[in-house]
Design a protein that fits this description.
Helix content: 25-40%
Strand content: 15-25%
Bound molecules: adenosine-5'-diphosphate, magnesium ion
Number of strands: 13
Distance between the termini: 13 Å
Strand order of the largest sheet: 8-10-7-11-9-12-13
Structural class: alpha+beta
Length: about 325
């Protein structure tokens, strides 16, 4: 049996994790969220957050397309994004590196210069790691963070009746990648979204006290809505016409023969936040100066997870990145 036969990445994770102890009274959220939440072991009463993400050469980045510094920036940002999605702020980082023996020292230094830039931007301190050799350059980052208990946003906290909101346009990173894959030069914004994205730590902590569930959009909007619904035991309806897609991403879709909605639903690496919020709290968030776009609503589980198309028809909300499938 191959990994694809059992349903890919997420089915594999479940199967593997059953072999090890994975529950503890102080583990408030373990496998299945953007970061693990470990109860109140910090002096100020906040919970410890731990997340980890790995990038592998030729699977997640290509040295012909991305400079080492850009890879360094992105490797930190995707971790900071997971901490932001919990409602927290990042603190300390550990970097495990596998480098090929022929890797240039200058390349590795540029990688770290990029990491350093992102660390300064998001207030992260490098605290350790591990270095070894391997056939493909592999960068595995573990990032710690903290969250005040009242700000913690789990994927499992959505409630029927909540609005589902995003913090900005989705599909731009996929649009940039599609143009590069087609041998086209993307406009600077799309190139930046793909190669050196930022994440929404600027708004996460402000949204967190009002939001119920939150997740970062790393695998595409469709996958993230499904993750929230699965963990919260709810349904959802997303309105296709309300999904914010940047005009440049629309244009990129035309140029590459893609559907812009596919970029938004399945592209991923947007690093915007998707969250659920009670309708009564929406205005409060807007009054705090946070730009949000309502893309749908949380429903009862029995209603299923659907996409409402512009012609009024509904289809199952599918798509999203899944390694191995
Ligand atoms: P994200 O997209 O937010 O980075 P992932 O989809 O990578 O999250 O992971 C989903 C959940 O599964 C997370 O809680 C993560 O810690 C857990 N997980 C992923 N791979 C493994 C593994 N090999 N062993 C244990 N837990 C894992
Ligand atoms: Mg995540």
């Amino acid at each position: 049996m191959r990994i694809a036969d059992i349903g890919g990445e997420f089915a594999l994770i479940q199967r593997l994790c059953a072999h090890a102890p994975n529950a503890h009274q102080n583990l408030l959220a373990g496998i299945g969220d953007d970061a693990a939440v470990i109860k109140g072991i910090q002096a100020d009463g906040s919970h410890l957050l731990v997340t980890t993400d790995m990038l592998v050469e030729n699977s997640h980045f290509r040295c012909e397309w991305a400079a080492a510094e850009q890879i360094g920036i992105k490797s930190v940002v995707c971790n900071v994004s997971d901490i932001a999605a919990m409602g927290g702020t990042p603190t300390f980082m550990f970097v495990s590196l596998a480098l090929a023996p022929e890797t240039e020292v200058a390349w590795a230094e540029s990688l770290y210069r990029g990491m350093g830039k992102a660390c300064r931007r998001y207030g992260v301190t490098l605290a350790g790691g591990d270095t070894t050799h391997g056939a493909a350059v592999t960068i595995s980052i573990t990032l710690l963070g903290r969250v005040a208990p009242e700000n913690l946003c789990l994927r499992s906290h959505a409630r029927p009746g909540d609005l589902l909101c995003v913090t900005g346009p989705v599909g731009s990173a996929a649009a940039g990648l599609a143009m590069m894959s087609a041998g086209l030069v993307p406009p600077p914004l799309l190139k930046e979204k793909h190669l050196t994205p930022g994440c929404r730590l600027d708004v996460g902590p402000t949204i967190a006290p009002l939001a119920h569930a939150m997740i970062d959009i790393s695998d595409g909007l469709a996958a993230e809505v499904n993750h929230i619904c699965q963990q919260s035991k709810t349904g959802a309806e997303i309105t296709a016409a309300d999904i914010p897609i940047h005009p440049l991403a629309m244009e990129a879709a035309r140029m590459t023969g893609n559907d812009p909605l596919t970029f938004a639903l399945s592209g991923g690496e947007d690093f915007e936040l998707l969250f659920s919020i009670a309708p009564k709290d929406r205005q409060q968030l807007e009054r705090r100066g946070i730009d949000i776009v309502v893309v749908g609503k949380v429903t009862d589980a029995a209603e299923g997870i659907f996409l409402r198309l512009p012609d009024g028809k509904r289809e199952k909300l599918t798509g999203g990145y899944n390694h191995f499938s």
